[in-house]
Design a protein that fits this description.
The protein is of the alpha+beta class. Helix content is 37%, strand content 20%.
Length: 250
């Protein structure tokens, strides 16, 4: 996780405590090695056990903000992400879940490798075929990854295979009665369509030489709802970034 090694820590922490110095799980004590990311929602860090085995701990914040109690949000987000990891454990291209730690944290096995942003070597010819198959297998579980547009969420494992991490905003809707069930199915199909569009886009960015003319053309056909999001979401994202810079948190 080369980019994660550097740590994504804002200048000023708006919410949440620093990463804990140690934690216990499965009869072993893990001690903090370095913080990988700290944002408004969670802090993620690498720890090692007495034998030097690295693990990743993600701890969702439960502290209030501006007087608003957010304990429930931290627990809910931890519950959701743990559920997503459990749904995918047998796929082999998702970090192994090690267990819950307290009310709002969980640990998973460390994956050696680089994310796509830091990958220096040429990706294997079958990398994006395997990534596409992984995403489709995830979809077959009734889930959408949702965050596929971020290259740093796709790792290139030590053996060259793709590995997905960070299922914080993924979506695996639970069964519901009609008409809510119909709405959920439609939304899930849209999110899954976006996942596959972003896989094609990543392939165009990193291995365009492997794309057929049809694939290349399809990588530019953005789904209508993503185009709509660019119109309304991008200005809000830029405003959020300017606010974080203004308060010194970016």
């Amino acid at each position: 996780m080369a980019r994660k090694e550097q740590g994504r820590i804002p200048k000023r922490i708006l919410r949440g405590k620093p990463a804990r110095e140690s934690f216990a799980l499965g009869g072993r004590t893990y001690r903090l090695e370095n913080v990988l990311k700290h944002d408004f929602f969670a802090v993620t860090a690498r720890y090692r056990d007495p034998d030097g085995e690295p693990v990743c701990l993600k701890h969702y914040h439960t502290e209030p903000w501006l007087g608003w109690p957010l304990d429930w949000a931290g627990r809910l987000m931890a519950d959701r992400e743990v559920r997503h990891y459990r749904l995918l454990q047998d796929l082999g291209n998702v970090p192994r879940l090690l267990g819950r730690v307290g009310r709002s944290a969980f640990a998973h096995a460390w994956v050696e490798g680089n994310d796509l942003l830091d990958q220096k070597d040429r990706l294997a010819d079958d990398f994006f075929d395997r990534l596409d198959a992984l995403v489709r297998a995830l979809h077959a579980r009734g889930m959408a990854y949702v965050d596929m547009n971020k290259p740093d969420n796709v790792l290139v494992g030590a053996d060259g295979r793709p590995v997905l991490i960070d299922f914080q905003i993924s979506w695996a809707p639970r069964p519901s009665r009609w008409p809510l069930a119909a709405v959920k199915r439609r939304l899930l199909a849209m999110f899954q369509e976006a996942d596959l569009y972003h896989v094609r886009k990543l392939k165009r960015l990193y291995r365009p030489d492997l794309m057929t003319p049809e694939e290349h053309a399809a990588s530019y056909r953005r789904p209508w709802f993503l185009s709509l999001h660019r119109v309304f979401g991008a200005p809000l994202r830029d405003l959020r970034r300017k606010f974080l810079e203004w308060v010194g948190a970016r």
